[in-house]
């Protein structure tokens, strides 16, 4: 279950249909498990627990990792940021017209190294186009040939900025949702605190009464022990003094 949750949350942008498939799988699995518990298994013994324990922390960590993972996937695996930069900084009409031409770099086939050059090419191709941000081969500064242009660094900075903004925005939304929808309502929380307070008061009262009874028991016990000892010694004709009663084999003790 936790593995399924991790795969869905971390890679949901790569496969948006995964949550729907997971929902169908979990519904079928719950019905099959319910049938097993009703027909084939002995009735389980329920056990009251406070929460899901360490799994709560594990799910929280997986959720935070998924936020960062989705931010990186959106920033570096899609054309969302390059299109946005093109519309804002390159396009004069601020639209996507000409974006494909802008995103393809030029490469002269004569610059292929011998080990990478095509063997017996069927057609005469002098220039290749590929999806990358590189300076063209006919640039005036030959030392900047096939180097990264300034627009590439603008896009990279925009991608990193998007990651920071995305993570902070999602964290803010999660905080707002947790604050508006708490796990325990305020009314129920007040009742729980009141019940705990009354329970503590009852425990303190019972402990106080028990301590008072313990203080009274030793005096009563000593007086009863002294009276019982003198009585049995007198019956046997061997009475001791009141300050120091004598004990014999017929002396009986009663614990009160």
From TrEMBL:
Chief place of localization: membrane
UniProtKB keywords: Membrane, Transmembrane, Transmembrane helix
Membrane topology classification: Multi-pass membrane protein
Cell compartment(s), UniProt: Membrane
Domain of life: Eukaryota
Domain Anoctamin transmembrane: 1-195
Record GO cellular component, one term: plasma membrane
Listed Pfam families: Anoctamin (PF04547)
Any one Gene Ontology molecular-function term assigned to this protein's record: chloride channel activity
InterPro entries (alphabetical): Anoctamin (IPR007632), Anoctamin_TM (IPR049452)
Transmembrane segments: 6-28, 49-76, 151-177
UniProt-listed PANTHER family: ANOCTAMIN
Entry similarity comment: Belongs to the anoctamin family.
The protein's name in its UniProt record: Anoctamin
Source organism of this protein record: Psylliodes chrysocephalus
């Amino acid at each position: 279950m936790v593995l399924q949750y991790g795969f869905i949350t971390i890679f949901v942008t790569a496969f948006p249909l995964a949550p729907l498939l997971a929902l169908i799988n979990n519904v079928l699995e719950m019905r099959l498990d319910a049938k097993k518990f009703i027909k084939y298994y002995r009735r389980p013994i329920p056990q009251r627990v406070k929460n899901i324990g360490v799994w709560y922390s594990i799910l929280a960590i997986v959720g935070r990792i998924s936020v960062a993972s989705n931010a990186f996937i959106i920033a570096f695996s899609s054309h969302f940021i390059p299109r946005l930069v093109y519309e804002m900084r390159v396009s004069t009409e601020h639209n996507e017209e000409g974006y494909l031409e802008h995103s393809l770099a030029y490469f002269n086939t004569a610059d292929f190294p011998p080990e990478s050059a095509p063997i017996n090419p069927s057609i005469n191709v002098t220039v290749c186009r590929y999806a990358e941000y590189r300076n063209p081969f006919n640039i005036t500064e030959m030392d900047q040939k096939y180097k990264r242009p300034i627009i590439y660094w603008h896009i990279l900075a925009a991608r990193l900025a998007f990651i920071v903004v995305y993570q902070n925005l999602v964290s803010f939304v999660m905080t707002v949702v947790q604050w508006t929808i708490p796990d325990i309502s305020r009314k129920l929380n007040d009742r729980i605190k009141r019940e705990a307070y009354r329970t503590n008061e009852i425990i303190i009262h019972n402990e106080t009464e028990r301590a008072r009874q313990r203080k009274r028991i030793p005096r009563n016990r000593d007086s009863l022990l002294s009276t019982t000892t003198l009585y049995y010694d007198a019956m046997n004709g061997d009475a001791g003094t009141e300050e120091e009663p004598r004990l014999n084999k017929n002396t009986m003790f009663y614990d009160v």
